[in-house]
């Protein structure tokens, strides 16, 4: 019998033979803006259940845990893009991510799947979690064969950019407008810089 999270994981990761093949196939899904309607149509109900605190049974296995993290962290950013609801699942996702990491569940996932566990910490406006994210990305990079290193170096670099913003501001200034938070003058200057709105 198909696990309830399997269709989501198949849609999110595809069937690439290695991490680079998966990334090549799915990069526009992960980091573009052209699949929001598809995400809503296929997984909108599951996202709503997750945001309401449901799907606890998904936490009983590493694969289900990963699926729940994607429902809480990644898909709201697509389905509710540019609204406060995009970040509604973050806190639960971050707590669940830390719980699973403490159990070592990330080591039961493929390297490219582990990236999306660490992205939960990368999205956190908590410096300690950002620092852990960097450490774990570095460890993940160190495990990779030569052919995958450039891909994982990119993930680490992006995480380091996020960490520097949290170290400087304690939050992501690019979220301020959506979350109706007043920006400081320093934050407004920062948001004028190229690449500040990842």
Automatic annotation (TrEMBL):
<dbReference type="Pfam" id="PF06041">
    <property type="entry name" value="DUF924"/>
</dbReference>
<protein>
    <submittedName>
        <fullName>DUF924 family protein</fullName>
    </submittedName>
</protein>
<dbReference type="InterPro" id="IPR010323">
    <property type="entry name" value="DUF924"/>
</dbReference>
<dbReference type="InterPro" id="IPR011990">
    <property type="entry name" value="TPR-like_helical_dom_sf"/>
</dbReference>
């Amino acid at each position: 019998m198909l696990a309830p999270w399997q269709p989501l994981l198949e849609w999110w990761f595809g069937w690439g033979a290695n991490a680079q093949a998966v990334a090549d196939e799915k990069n526009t899904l992960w980091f573009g803006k052209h699949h929001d309607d598809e995400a809503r149509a296929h997984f909108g109900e599951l996202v709503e259940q997750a945001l309401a605190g449901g799907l606890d049974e998904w936490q009983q296995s590493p694969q289900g845990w990963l699926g729940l993290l994607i429902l809480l962290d990644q898909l709201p950013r697509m389905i509710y893009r540019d609204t406060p609801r995009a970040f509604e699942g973050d806190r639960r996702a971050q707590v669940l991510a830390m719980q699973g990491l403490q159990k070592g569940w990330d080591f039961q996932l493929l390297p490219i799947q582990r990236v999306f566990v660490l992205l939960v910490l990368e999205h956190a406006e908590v410096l300690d979690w950002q620092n852990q994210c960097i450490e774990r990305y570095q460890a993940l990079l160190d495990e990779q064969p030569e052919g995958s290193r450039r891909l994982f170096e990119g993930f680490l670099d992006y995480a380091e950019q996020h960490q520097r913003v949290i170290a400087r501001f304690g939050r992501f200034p690019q979220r301020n407008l959506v979350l109706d938070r007043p920006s400081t003058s320093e934050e407004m200057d920062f948001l004028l810089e190229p690449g500040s709105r990842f």
